[in-house]
C-alpha cells in the first residue's frame, strides 16, 4: 500500500505563518506597498521555500557526483594504489539517491524551473570531507549487508547531522535567499519524512510531496496576510489598550506584528482553535524575536482573548470549537 504523501507536505501551517509574518514585517517597513505587491512577494517567498526542498536533493546528487569524480581521478593517477584501482563504490551507487534522481516528477520539476545552485563546489567539498570522516560513513561503507535500508540510513545521517552543521551551506543559503537559513530546519524535516516513507524503486511512481496539503492551506496563507494588513491599525489600537505597562513604541516591531497576526487568526479563522493559534505564535515569538517575547505575547493574548470572549467577538465552528466553553 502506497504511503499517504499528505503526511509530509512541504509547506506546513507553521511555515506559512512564518512566511506571512516575514512579508508583513517587510510591508510595515516600506511605505506605499500595495496589497497586491505584498501578496506577490508572499507567493514568491512560498515558492522559494518549496524550491529549497528540491535544491537540497540536488545537493545530495552533487555529493554523489563529487565522490564519483574522486574515484575516477584516483584510477587515472600515474601510480595508483590498490585502493585507487579497487575503490569502495557503495556510496556512489546509493540506491535511494539513484531512485530519487531518476524520479520523473523530481526530474521534471527541476528542469521546468531551471533549479540549481550557482556555485556549491565549496559546500560539496566540505560536506564530503565531513562525511568520510564520520564513523557513520565508515560503518556504512564497511557493512557486510549491502541493503536499501543502509543506503537510506546514510542519507538520513547527512540530512540530520551534516547539512544543519555546515557553515558553508549556511553561507550559500544566505547568498541565495535571506529567509532560507530560517527555513532549512523545516525543509530538512519534510525531506526526512519523505525519505523515511519512500518505498524504494516503486517510489518513482508516487507523487512528490505537494506544496500545500490542500487548497484550504493555500487560501489560508493569502487570507492571513490580507486580513492582517487590512486590520493592522485596528489591532494595533487593541494591543495598545492591553499594554498599559508598556510603551507601545518600545514594544519590538516583530512582537507587535506577531500579536497583530495572532489576533487576526483568532478573529477571522473560525476553523482554527484559539489555543492552537496562541501556541503557534508563542513558539514563533520564542524562535524569531527576543528571549522574553513568548511570555509577553502569551500574557497579552490571554488578556485580549478573555475580553473578546466576554464581548462574544470570537466565533468558532467545526474543529475551531475545540477548547471552547
Structure description:
This protein is 67% helix and 0% strand. With 325 residues, the protein is an all-alpha fold. The protein folds into two domains: 7-205, no CATH class; 231-315, Orthogonal Bundle (N-utilizing Substance Protein B Homolog, Chain A). Residues 1-8 have low confidence and may be disordered.
Structural key phrases:
325 residues, mainly alpha, N-utilizing Substance Protein B Homolog, Chain A, 2 domains, 15 helices, disordered N terminus
Q: Total number of β-strand segments? A: 0
- Count of folded domains: 2
Shape by Cα distribution? elongated
Strand content: under 5%
Secondary-structure element order, N to C: HHHHHHHHHHHHHHH
Calculate the mean pLDDT score and round it.
Answer: 88
Summarize the structure.
This protein is mainly alpha-helical and 325 residues long. It contains 15 helices and no strands. α2 packs across α11, α13 runs antiparallel to α14 (274-288) and α14 packs antiparallel against α15.
